[in-house]
Amino acid sequence: MVKVYVPQDSTAKALGADAVAAAIQIFAATKGVELELVRNGSRGIFWLEPLVEVETADGRVAYGPVMDDQIDSLLNAGLLDATTDSPLYLGLTEEIPYLARQQRFTFARAGIADPVCLDNYKAQGGYEGLTKALAMNGQAIVDEVKTSGLRGRGGAAFPTGIKWQTVHDAQPTDGETKYIVCNADEGDSGTFADRLAMEADPYQLIEGMTIAGLAVGAEQGYIYLRSEYPDAHRILNEAISRAEAAGYLGENICGSGSKFNLEVRLGAKAYICGEETSLLESLEGKRGMVRAKPPLPAIVGLFGQPTIVNNVLTLAAVPFILAQGAQAYADVGFGRSRGTLAFQLAGNIKRGGLVEVAFGLSLQELLEDFGGGTYTGRRMRAVQVGGPLGAYLPESQWDTPLDYESFAAQQAVLGHGGVVVFDDSVDMSEQARFSMEFCVAESCGKCTPCRIGSTRGVEVIDKIRANQNRDANMELLEDLCETMVDGSLCAMGGMTPFPVMSAVRHFGEDFHRTTADQNEEVSA
Amino acid sequence: MPLTAEQISSTVQASINKLIAKPGALLPILHDIQEVLGYIPPEAVPQIASALNQSSAEIHGVITFYHQFRTHPVGKHNVEICRAEACQAMGSRHLEAHAKSSLGVDYHQTTSDGAIFLEPVYCLGNCACSPSVRIGDRVHARVTPERFDALIDELRTDKLEVLNG
CB A268 to CB B67 under 8 A? Predict the structure, then answer.
């Protein structure tokens, strides 16, 4: 019996993993080899996907990237005998440097097994956190999360324990319940950590939400998932129904008498619904219009009740904290940023993928040591960190340590840890224009600086790019950005100026090319 | 063949009946209708409004807020090209231009043979292997213009088989 792993992750499938899996099955059947084919999650080493693994006495050995036009020759070379004689042979999976150098807390189980197999989850330490939580009172769970120093992983980095305390202390209306809402509307370009966590280890998120429910006394949870993630949708629904059947969700969790139900709800292609109040409106069946705060969602949240709204990775970090102890989590990190952050190397990068490390590594180390430079081989020029509302960083800022405060000091944001790399063919005035254009498309329209400001922003940048009255328009753009930062209701309008102004500040030459220069470039 | 008014009405009612008990049922209902019919017919609006005890204006407001919901039938295959930054860094602007010119449509339009409906999308979470295209529920990575043409050819071939079959 040969055991082979081919990921069912959506990036692996986008690169042809299904065809690879089918070819392996056909080959084994023809040769009469008894095969157990496991469709595991991905380990997040996306530049090596499809990553095929074969189990051996020494552990799992890996081959990658196995494209569908290479699988036949790899099979003939002896894939099922774990041949070392192949250019795609990578050695023991656990020893692949990209993986071995990471510190995996939240993604420790990612890619090991079939993601919806509950027995595998438990065999790998799953539900130990919940077991401990069931023996504690709500306040003790909240205290544990506080001690861990965990901060919201969605981007705003608010201390999770404090949010939980607020919901713990708040009372729902008579006959109503509090809610746990997982923000799985991972809309930022360059981010896929939530998707990977949901596709590769769905029970961890389910367990984290269940623990949150016990901590604050909430009986209903919702995962608000973006509709762009159909694989995550299928996997989460399957995992939830298996967890229900096994008594880990439902009216009587593990016989404790506590109740917690969970449901996945789909978004409908609206970036703004990643903003927590807009998300709540959407869950209530309304337009995703941002709410004014206060009241905080922790006090008046979903259907008017006290609600925890946390990102996928925030909730997914909770089982580790309960199982291993808050101190184990707090022991790693940098300054006030404790624990690990899942960075996502994306865009024009040679070795793109998920890199979970403790805070404090420099951006340069991430880009070079893990990323290996650009995919195109050209000079790296600009790096956007923290999604479409994050600043573009020039080379002079790449030595910035990766922690929330150091980035804030550079007028940049770490956000959800997305890192998008551009080579020197990028036109930064075009990127600045896109930031404004994106805000036009995705603004909820509630506040004027965002709704109108972004439209004016596109127009002003167009004039600058067309060399019309440039100095006056540059000044106007700066004014407009200031108005949007100071006057917008939420981060959509309030942060769109970050990428725009960083492009102006650090890549000013792209705004000062004459139309003649641009024409010359086009003709050349 | 287009559905009759009665067929549309009963489909819409089935979605409503199945989901109305859920708190905040409107989005699940709209998703369900679009899943079955491919779009949300204008005549469904008063029907949903009456079931949820809301005004037609409120329902219309929700449908038009979200990029996903559409109020008219579209092409057989939904093809979405990612426009977000990670894909831009890998040449998605060029891919978009190629797609529009080779298909002869702009975004939110269907090709003249009714096969392809072209839409933009902002991120498919496949940002380490850009540029990305989604066709139906399937994401494709590192899509060059040539790969795009091959994918479209496959879709059109499928269509012929269905018609002949």
Answer: yes
**Which of A190, A283, A441 is opposite residue B24, by nearest beta carbon?**
A283
Phi and psi based region of residue A464 (left: phi greater than 0; alpha: psi -120 to 50; beta: remaining) = alpha
Question: Domains along chain A?
Answer: 2-100 (3.40.30.10), 118-330 (3.40.50.11540), 333-423 (3.10.20.600), 428-523 (1.20.1440.230)
Residue A142 CB-density burial (10 A; 0-12 exposed, 13-18 middle, 19+ buried):
buried
Q: Name the residue of chain B whose CA is nearest to A354's CA.
A: B128
Q: How confident is the model at residue B87 (pLDDT cuts 50, 70, 90)?
A: very high
Of the pLDDT bands very low, low, confident and very high (cuts 50, 70, 90), residue A497 is very high
> Testing the interface with B: which of A42, A189, A278, A429 to mutate, by most B Cβ within 10 A?
A189
pLDDT above 80 for A217: yes
Give me the DSSP letters along B14-77: HHHHHHTTSTT-HHHHHHHHHHHHSS--TTHHHHHHHHHT--HHHHHHHHHHSTT--SS---SE
Q: How far is CA B154 from CA A68, A304, A473, B77, B103, in A?
A: 17, 49, 48, 11, 14
Q: What is the pLDDT of residues A227-262, one digit of tens each?
A: 999 999 999 999 999 999 999 999 999 999 999 999
Distance (Å, rounded) from C-alpha B25 to C-alpha B20? 6
- Residues B121, A95: Cα–Cα separation, whole Å: 37
Residues A6-29, mean pLDDT to the nearest whole number: 97
Mutate to test the interface with B, among A69, A265, A420, A436 (most CBs of B within 10 A): A420
Cα–chain-centroid distance for residue A362? 19
Residue pair A145/A160 in contact by the 8 Å Cβ criterion? yes
Residue of A nearest to B137 (CA): A230
Contact (Cβ atoms closer than 8 angstroms) between residue A347 and residue A320: no
The pLDDT of residue A524 is: 44
- Please report, to the nearest 10 degrees, the dihedral formed by the alpha carbons of residues A346, A350, A354, A360 taken in order: -90
- Contact present, A277 and A290 (Cβ < 8 Å): yes
Cβ–Cβ < 8 Å for B92, B51: no
What residue in B sits closest to A425 (Cα-Cα)?
B89
The pLDDT assigned to B150 comes to: 97
Kindly state the tokens that stand for B137: 């529920």
Question: What mean pLDDT do residues A470-497 have?
Answer: 97
The pLDDT tens digits of the residues spanning A260-290 come to: 999 999 999 999 999 999 999 999 999 999 9
CB spacing of B137 vs A230 below 8 angstroms: yes
In chain B, what residues touch A197 (CB-CB under 8 Å)? Answer: none
Q: What is the pLDDT of residue A6?
A: 98
Chain A residues with CB-CB distance to B128 below 8 A: 11, 46-47, 192, 344-346, 349, 352-353
Q: What is the pLDDT of residues A32-67, one digit of tens each?
A: 999 999 999 999 999 999 999 999 999 999 999 999
What pLDDT does A33 receive? 96
Chain B residues within 8 A of A303 when measuring between CB atoms = 23-24
